[in-house]
Amino acid sequence: MKHLLSIEDLDRVAIERICERAATFASPSDREIKKVPALRGHTVLNLFYEASTRTRSSFELAAKRLSADVVNFVASGSSVEKGESLKDTVLTLNAHRPDAIVIRTPWAGSAELVAGWTDAAIVNAGDGKHEHPTQALLDVYTLRRRVGDLAGAKIWIVGDVLHSRVARSNILAFQKMGAEVTVCGPPTLIPRGIEAMGCEVRYTLDDLPDADVVYALRMQHERMDQAWIPTLREYAAVYQINDKRLLPRQVLMHPGPVNRGVELSGGVVDSPQAAILEQVQAGVVVRMAVLYEVLAGARVGGVRDTAPQPATPEAQLA
Ligand code: CP
Questions:
Q1: Quick one: pLDDT band at residue 316, thresholds 50, 70, 90?
Q2: What is the CA radius of gyration of the chain?
Q3: Nearest protein CA to atom 4 of ligand 1, as residue
Q4: Centroid of ligand 1 to alpha carbon of 30 (angstroms)
Q5: Ligand 1 binding residues, C-beta < 6 A
Q6: N or C, fewer C-beta in 10 Å, the chain?
Q7: Distance, CA 122 to ligand 1 centroid (Å)?
Q8: CB-based contact 90:101 (threshold 8 Å)
């Protein structure tokens, strides 16, 4: 695998391989010395044009735990503020010869564009409303640890599907793993024609008790340029996942950051059903597996055949 731009690039076997490799990184993450030398001598550039807590910190930790050198670039405080374009910024930073670029931007399709400007492996860390593939992978990893095989699992994705790159990546990933996906929200926040992705659509939570997993989405104020719902209070009255709507047997997920009291009540966020902090923990090991995959994959393709060859992580841990 040269790049990770979209979950569409992966089949079930590849998703399982990444999850299994991530699991091999879980034990060093629990040790006093958390590093393995898998990517020693490699440089990972984290290029973030949009706010991030979870994704940015976990990619940085992931690269460091693989012993890569890490350069963190955030648009604010950079020459982007003086008008430098995405292309010129990438070409400038590419002069440092990164082996991988992890990129988050508010622009759909930007990760693919960047892949055309550099030989580095590109990992899409969220491009506008398009995709967030590593979020989907860490969610599959987390769920497999909670419930086992996802084949036949009923997963409801609830909330602002329209503005959500997580929804798009997760619908694809959960279905590739054999789950049945339903999306639910106000009609204004469900994209027209989303049934073509193979998911069911609901506009009420009446059938939510059927779900094994409830995946709530954040209300994405920053991507809303008009009033899509009457008020957040009315949204919460109809769609909030709270202790009256969440059954004890159901697993609750959310990509974060959570708007407490809007899409989730504070009580369910802190409940044992919530896998939200497990998702954050999974972010590090899954992103270690993705960085390992794209860098090793690129060398197999001969793109950077002068780079040092790492032993497999499994061998390094043996
Ligand atoms: N889930 C997610 O992408 O969170 P951040 O925006 O904090 O990275």
A1: low
A2: 20
A3: 54
A4: 23
A5: 52-55, 126, 132, 135, 255-257
A6: C
A7: 18
A8: yes
SS3 102: strand
Q: Which residue ranges make up the annotated binding site for L-aspartate?
A: 82, 165, 218
Which positions make up the binding site for carbamoyl phosphate? 54-55, 104, 132, 135, 256-257
Structure tokens at 106: 């508010």
Query: How far, CA to CA in Å, does 310 sit from each of 46, 67, 123, 315?
Result: 21, 11, 19, 10
Q: Can you say how many angstroms the Cα of residue 42 is from the centroid of all Cα atoms in its chain? A: 23
Q: What is the mean pLDDT of residues 207-213?
A: 98
Mean per-residue pLDDT, 179-193: 96
User: Which helix (H) or strand (E) is 274 found in, with range?
Assistant: none
Q: Strand, helix or coil at 299? A: helix
In this prediction, residue 304 carries a pLDDT of 36
Measured CA to CA in angstroms, residue 155 lies from 93, 101, 199 at distances of 41, 32, 10
pTM for the whole thing?
A: 0.92
Residue with tokens 């339903």: 182
